[in-house]
Automatic annotation (TrEMBL):
Residues 28-223 form the Nitroreductase domain. Gene3D superfamilies: NADH Oxidase. The lineage of its organism: Bacteria, Bacillati, Actinomycetota, Actinomycetes, Kitasatosporales. This is Nitroreductase family protein. It holds the Pfam family Nitroreductase.
């Protein structure tokens, strides 16, 4: 097995294309992993890439749990299975609209493979974040209400929970994307899931994560059994709305 870090080449015929674009365009979710360990120095490089990501308010309150102990992974495997089974019985039961059934079947097969071999996962990364309590005084609240207006202030009261969740997630997921890009650039397979949230308390208990610390993903990492290749995504022309919807 070749475990040397390799950078993807620029697409054929375009020597001016930045290597980052080739990295992004071949960054499939790789769920079939070899059991060979990933060196700690490479895992540290993934975390370094994540730390370089944007941080809301520059608060940098993220933490990363990195699991490599086979005994701990074996303890997590039954929790993973329960979460995956719950997903496949509900949201994951049907192919998304517009996705070929055969292609979806292959994706489900990969998910099931990862489920059944989870105890062999070389590394698992859990991004965590604890958003600080807001520091708001009476004068600030008054100016806040004046700036938003009565209708805007009332609406914020209705969506405050969603706003807080998005604010916290926006401090974590840019770093997670950096981590995934770094993994691809180093020839490592990785994929992001949030299925662990179905049993988050059990996961946090198994990993000793404080109760007031939120977790945002479970990212299995290892050397791929398959090959990287072009991702299948909707054309840009279908998703862009210029100037107005």
């Amino acid at each position: 097995m070749n475990t040397q870090a390799t950078l993807p080449e620029a697409p054929a015929g375009d020597a001016t294309e930045p290597a980052l674009f080739a990295t992004m365009s071949t960054m499939r979710a790789m769920r079939r992993l070899q059991p060979d360990p990933v060196p700690d120095e490479l895992l540290d490089r993934l975390i370094q890439a994540a730390v370089w990501g944007p941080s809301g308010g520059n608060m940098q309150r993220y933490e990363y749990v990195v699991v490599t102990d086979p005994e701990v992974m074996a303890e997590l495997a039954p929790l993973w299975k329960r979460c995956v089974d719950a997903y496949l019985a509900t949201t994951g039961k049907y192919a998304p609209a517009g996705m070929d059934e055969a292609a979806y079947g292959r994706m489900v097969a990969a998910i099931e493979y990862q489920r059944d071999h989870f105890a062999e996962t070389p590394a698992l990364i859990i991004p965590c974040y604890r958003f600080p309590e807001p520091r708001i005084e009476e004068e600030g609240l008054q100016r806040y209400a004046e700036a938003l207006g009565a209708e805007g202030t009332a609406r914020m009261g209705r969506i405050q929970e969603r706003f807080s969740a998005l604010a916290e997630g926006s401090c974590v997921y840019p770093g997670v994307q950096n981590l995934l890009l770094a993994a691809r650039a180093l020839g490592l397979a990785a994929n992001i899931t949030i299925w662990h949230l179905m049993l988050e308390d059990e996961w946090k208990a198994a990993l000793g994560i404080p109760e007031d610390m939120n977790t945002f993903a479970a990212i299995p990492v290892g050397w791929p059994r398959g090959k990287f290749g072009p991702v299948s995504r909707r054309p840009v022309a279908e998703v862009v709305h210029r100037n107005r919807w």
